[in-house]
Amino acid sequence: MNGLKKLFVVSSVLILSLFLLTTGISAQNLDETMKSLSETAGKAYVKPVVNGFGADLNGGWYHKAPRAKLFSIDFEFGVVAMGSLFEDKDKSFATSGTFRFTKDQAATLVPTSLPISVQNSLINTIINKDYTVTMSGPTVVGDKNDNIKIVFPGDVINVPSVGNQTIAAKTIDITDAKGLIDFRAVPLAAPQVTVGTILGTQAAFRYLPELDLSKFSDKITIGKVKYFGWGVQHNPKAYMFKFIPLDFSLSYFTQKLNVGEILEATASAYGINVSKQLGPGWLNITPYAGYMLEKSTLKFKYDYVIDTATNKMQSVAFEMDGENENRITLGLGLKLLFLNITADYNIGKVKSATVGLWLLSF
To answer: Please, which residues have CB within 8 angstroms of residue 223's CB and are 6 or more apart in sequence?
Structure first.
C-alpha cells in the first residue's frame, strides 16, 4: 500500500504541474486576467482553452478492450498525459460587444486640455455607460507580450453649463490582459486506475484529491482544485461474438473538474474501441483504435472590475461547449513485464495526443 500511495502522490504532483501550465498561473494568473474583461471579451479570450480542455478530458481513457472473460483479476494504475493541439488562428481573436471602461481607462479618452471639472464630468459619464466596441488581441494561448486592445467608438457628451463635448475614437490597451500560455498545445494529466473484469466489464477512475493551490505559492490565488471521473468498458465477447478475431468494447466515460470559483469543467464520451494483443502477457504490443461521440462544457464565473478607483465589480458567469463532438483514436501500447507504455493520436475538430505510463499493469 505504501508503494501505491507514493505512486498516487507522484501522479497528483504531475497533474498539478501540468494544470498550472494549462491555466497559465504565474505572477499574472487566469483569474486576475479575466477581471479585466467583459463577458464578450472573456468568451473570445478563453475559447481555445475551452476546446483544449474538452479534448484533453475526453482523451486517454482506454488503450485496449477488457478481456473477453466472465471473470478475471485485472488491475492497472498509472498516469495519462494529454495535449490538445491548436493552430496560429487560435492565438488571437477579434470580436465586438459591450464594454464598461474603468476610471483609469476613461481618463485616457478625455482631452487633458479641458478644465479639470469638465474632465471629471466626462469621465463619470463614460464609466457609467456601456459602449459597443471592437476588441482584439491575444487569446489565453496567445503572445505573452501583447495586450488586448479596445477601440473606443467616440462619443458626444453634454456637460451642464458647458455644452456638448466630442470625445474622439481611440484605441486603448488593457495592460492586465495578455496571452498566458504561449504553447502549441494545452496540456493536462490525470492519475487513472482501471479494475475488472466481470462479465467482460472493467471500470476506470480518475481522481485528484482537493488541493488548495495557494499552499504551493503565494502567487496562486485561483483557489482549490477538485477532479473526479469514472467510466466503464464492456466487451461482449465474454459471452458472444467469440468468432471475431479482435477484442472490442462499448464504453462510456464522464468527469468533472473544479478550479476554485472561476472554472467548472464537465465532459463525457461514449463509443466503441477495438484492440489486438500481439505477443505474450509479459511482453507484447497492442494496436488499438476507437470512435467516440463526446461533449464538454466549461463554466466560468468571475468578477469583472468596472471601476478601479472604487474596486466596483460586476459578476460575470457564462458557459461554453467545446467544439469536439466526435473523434477517431489510433494508438499503440508496449508492455514490458509490469510496465505498459501507450500513445495515441486523436482526430477530430480539435486534434490531440495522449501518452500513458502504467506502472502496475496485470
So the answer is: 212, 213, 214, 259, 260, 261, 262
What's the average model confidence in pLDDT over 295-300?
92
Alpha helix positions (H), the chain: 2-23, 30-34, 39-57, 103-109, 116-127
Which of 295, 362, 277, 283 shows the shortest CA–CA distance to 63?
277
Q: Answer positive or negative: Cα dihedral of 215, 216, 219, 225.
A: negative
Residue carrying C-alpha cell 483479476:
73
- The yes-or-no verdict on residue 14 having pLDDT over 60 is no
Q: List CB contacts of 50: < 8 A, sequence separation 6 or more.
A: 296, 298, 320, 321, 322
Cβ count near 70 (within 10 Å): 11
Which residues, at least 6 apart from 148, have a Cβ–Cβ distance to it below 8 Å?
36, 37, 41, 45, 135, 136, 137, 138, 173, 174, 177, 178
Torsion angle (degrees, nearest 10) of CA 17, 23, 28, 30: -150
CA distance 3 to 7: 6
- 310 phi-psi bin (left φ>0, alpha ψ -120 to 50, beta other): alpha
Kindly report the number of other CB atoms within 10 A of residue 229's CB atom. Answer: 22
How many angstroms separate the CA atoms of 35 and 176, rounded?
A: 9
For the residues of 17-29, what is the DSSP string, one character each? HHHHHHHT-SSS-
50-64 pLDDT, tens digit each: 888 889 999 999 999
Calpha distance 25→27 (Å, rounded): 7
315, 287 contact by CB (below 8 A): no
- List, in order, residues 6 or more apart from 289 with CB less than 8 Å away: 273, 274, 275, 328, 329, 330, 331
Among 81, 68, 63, residue whose Cα is nearest residue 361: 63
Residue-wise pLDDT tens digits, 319-342: 999 999 999 999 999 999 889 999
Strand locations in 120-169, DSSP E? Answer: 131-138, 147-152, 155-159, 163-167
- Picking from 295, 221, 301, the residue whose alpha carbon sits closest to that of residue 264 is 301
Q: Which three cell numbers stand for residue 88?
A: 496560429
Mapped onto helix, strand or coil, the DSSP state of residue 281 is coil
- Separation of alpha carbons 227 and 210, rounded Å: 7
